[in-house]
Amino acid sequence: MKLCSRIKTILSLAAVTLALFCGAAFGEVNIQYPASAGEGNPFAVRITSSEPLTGVSAKWQGWTIPLDITVWNGRYIAIGLFGAQSGKVKTGTYPMMLTLQSNGKKREIKLSIKITPVKYKEDRLTLPESMVTPPAAVLERIARERKAAGAALATLSLERNWGLPLIRPVDGIVTSPYGRRRILNGKPRTPHGGMDLRATTGTPVKAALSGRVVLTGDHYYAGKSIYIDSGGGVITQYFHLDSIEVKDGDIVKMGAIIAKSGQSGRVTGPHLHFGLCLSGQQVNPEPIFTKNLADLLEKTALAKVEF
Ligand SMILES: [Zn+2]
User: Which of 20, 54, 174, 211 is the most buried (most CB within 10 A)?
Assistant: First the structure.
C-alpha cells in the first residue's frame, strides 16, 4: 500500500511537472472588447481559445458574472454582454477583470474600458407635489417590490440563452427613450432605465429574448410586470402590462407572446416599458434591436494572452 501510494505521488508529481512544462507552449486566447463604450450602450466581450476552457468569469462594476462556454469549430468561446448605466456609472475608465480556467490552471486578465459621455434627452416638468411623492401608506410596499425586483435582476444563471439582435416586443414607436432625464419641480430624477414603446391596451407583447421567467408581479410603479433571465446576467423587463400570460419559472422562447400591454402602475397612458438589465446595469436596448453580435464586435480592441 505504502509503495503504491508513493508511486502515485511520483506519478502525480510527474503530471504536474509535465503540465508546467507544457504550460509554456499552451494555447493562445483572443479577447475582443471595446476600448471605449458610450454610457448606457450595451457592449460585448468575446473570449476565444484554442485550448479547452473550463471556466470563464468577468468582474465588471462590482459584479462577478460567470460566462457560458461553447465549443465551435474546435474553439472554446465565451461571450458576455455588458454596459454602464447612465446616471449610475460616472464616465471614465474602468477595469474589467477576466478569470480564465483551463486544465486546472487559472489566468487573470485586466482589460480597461473607457465609458464616454452620451447626450440623452432632458426635460423639465412642474407637477403638484402630491403627484411626485408617493403617499406614506405605500412606502413599505414600494420597498418590498424594489427588493423583489433587485433579487430578480441579480439572477446569474450560466446558460446563455440570449442572441442578437433582440426581437422588438411590440411594433410601436419609441415615445420615451432610454436615458431621458426628468427634472421634476427642479429636482433631477433617476434617468429613464428603459424605453417606452407605443402600444394600445391589449397589444400582444413578445419576449425579446429566450429565457426563464424569474419574476411576475403587480407593482406600485411598474404595474403588472415580467422579468426574464436569459443567462450571463442578461435580464429583460416588461412593465405596465394589462395581463400576464406566463408564470414564475416558465421557460419562454424569443418571440413568444408573454403578455398584453396596458397602463397598469404609475403611468398616464397605455404603453410598454421595455428594460434591458446587464449585470445590474440598466442599458439602452435600442442599439441591439438592429445590431447582431458581429456588429457589436466590430471595431473592438483585441487582447492576446497565453496560458
Ligand atoms: Zn418607461
Answer: 211
Distance 273 CA to ligand 1 centre (A): 4
- Domains identified in the chain and CATH numbers: 27-118+294-306 (2.60.40.10), 122-289 (2.70.70.10)
Q: Which three cell numbers stand for residue 35?
A: 476600448
Mean model confidence pLDDT for the chain: 90
Amino acid, single-letter form, for residue 103: N
| Residue the block writes with cell 440598466 | 282
Give 57-72 pLDDT, tens digit per residue: 999 999 999 999 999 9
Structure-block grid coordinates of residue 220: 406600485
Q: What is the C-alpha R_g of the chain?
A: 23
For residue 130 the three cell numbers come to 402630491
| pTM confidence score | 0.89
Closest CA to 205 of 287, 290, 283, 273: 273
> How many A from CA of 275 to the centre of ligand 1?
8
* Chain Cα centroid distance, residue 152: 12
